[in-house]
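Priority: low. Protein: DUF4295 domain-containing protein. Input follows.
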Amino acid sequence: MAKGASKNAKVKDTKAAAESKVWTKVIKAVRSPKTGAYTFKEAIVHKDKVQEHINAK
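Result:
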C-alpha cells in the first residue's frame, strides 16, 4: 500500500515541477532620482512576460 501512495506523490511532484518551469524570477535594479542609490525590485513573472516586465518603468 505504501508503494501506491509514494507513486501518486511522485506523479504530483512531476506535474508541479513541469508547471514551475514556466515562471521566472526577475530582479531589476532601479536608481533613485533623489539620492542616486540603487534599489532592487523582485518579481516572479511568467516566462512569456519577462521582456514586458523588464522594459516597464
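Residues 2-20 form the longest helix (19 residues). The chain has a mean pLDDT of 82.
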